[in-house]
Design goal:
Largest sheet: 4 strands, mixed
Structural class: alpha+beta
Radius of gyration: 14 Å
Shape: globular
Number of strands: 7
Number of helices: 2
Number of domains: 1
Helix content: 10-25%
Strand content: 35-45%
Strand order of the largest sheet: 4-7-5-6
Order of helices and strands: EEHEEEEHE
């Protein structure tokens, strides 16, 4: 089992953030190969049952249709009075988007990509 970390901008500085926890190698590699930011997969530590992490992914209008591409937005840590969001994966197929929707522990949303 692996944890996936993402090297994303937080208040203008690249910081390693936790993206997924306790996922299999295939899921970790699928996220790492499609994420637009640098990622690293590390063996996960046995989770502490008293601090189990909930999944926070939402799917906005998740009605898969052939030919639709998806974008994944992640909520970055709060900075001052702002809670920024940023794109972490784009132009995903339905199967790729489902990996994010089903396995992230970070607050994120998977949305159909706008055409045009």
């Amino acid at each position: 089992m692996f944890d996936v970390l993402i090297h994303a901008p937080v208040a203008g500085v690249l910081t390693w953030l936790h993206l997924a926890s306790g996922v299999g190698r295939d899921v970790a590699e699928a996220i790492a190969s499609t994420c637009i930011w640098e990622t690293k997969c590390v063996p996960c530590v046995e989770p502490d049952p008293s601090s189990e992490t909930a999944r926070f992914v939402t799917t906005a209008v998740w009605r898969p249709t052939p030919g639709t591409e998806y974008t994944v937005w992640m909520q970055y840590p709060r900075h001052g009075d702002k809670t920024p969001w940023g794109v972490i994966a784009d132009h995903l197929t339905q199967d790729q988007a489902e990996v994010y929707a089903n396995h992230l522990t970070a607050t994120a949303t998977v949305m159909p990509r706008r055409k045009g």
